[in-house]
Amino acid sequence: MPRFAANLTFLFAELPFGERCAAAAAAGFGAVEILYPYDTAARDTRRALLANGLELVLINAPPPNYTGGTPGFAALPGGEDRFRYDIRRVLRYATELKAGLIHVMAGQSDAANAIDTLVANLQWAADAAPEQSFTIEPLNPTDKPGYALADFDLAAEVLARVDRANVGLQFDSYHAQMIHGDALAVWQRHSSRISHVQIGDAPGRGAPGSGQIDFPALFAAIDASGYDGWVSAEYTPATRRSADSLGWLRATMP
Ligand SMILES: O=C(O)C(=O)[C@H](O)CO
Ligand SMILES: [Mg+2]
């Protein structure tokens, strides 16, 4: 069975940020991801992780200081200086928090050279921090209209062009199902380049079992592929308490 992590931006969001690590550990998770850890001093977050025996799997780049603007700059021609500034800042957090992965957000762009820009920026980041692992994640156009990376096959092409061992694909079952209509088929097509997994059902982005995705089959395929990273729960609980949305986890564990 996969090893499950909790995304603390989605799960336990009913609690103050400072209490979410303890709640995740109490629910049985061994790791967490925090999409935007930038509002809290890194040393406080690190202390909470350590106190609860949690690994930090992933944070997002850039920090969300783009009020009303594009989610990320990696695919924005002309945004290279901003991209580099953000990556340097995120690297400081990742180092202090010992975050295993940085998800680099592409941003919204329909420029003809958006993908060329994304490739070049990812190469720059990968070379600037060769010890750090990065991911890219296709996001579905219903939730993120205009996002430059909205297709897993395109993401595979981008990774082939980037050609760096420390840049991989982030597979989110929710986006895979929304974009391609069959998350399991996307997994089978791209598992060799996947370095991080997130799960949520579709449509609706609820807990596994609330939508169309066959999670027992997906978990079996993840195991069969030899993927040994974390599988992070990134969904919106339908229950008031996130802990009450974890029936799928209890059903999955032996
Ligand atoms: O939306 C998602 O699925 C993500 O993982 C992003 O990081 C959120 O911005
Ligand atoms: Mg995701």
UniProtKB/TrEMBL annotation:
Gene3D superfamilies: Divalent-metal-dependent TIM barrel enzymes (3.20.20.150). Belongs to the hyi family. Pfam families: AP_endonuc_2. The keyword Isomerase applies. PANTHER family: HYDROXYPYRUVATE ISOMERASE-RELATED, ISOMERASE. It comes from the Bacteria. This is Hydroxypyruvate isomerase. The active site is at 137 (proton donor/acceptor), 234 (proton donor/acceptor). Keywords: Isomerase, Pyruvate. One of its GO terms (biological process) is glyoxylate metabolic process. Residues 22-251 form the Xylose isomerase-like TIM barrel domain. InterPro entries: HyI-like (IPR026040), Sugar_Epim/Isomerase (IPR050417), Xyl_isomerase-like_sf (IPR036237), Xyl_isomerase-like_TIM-brl (IPR013022).
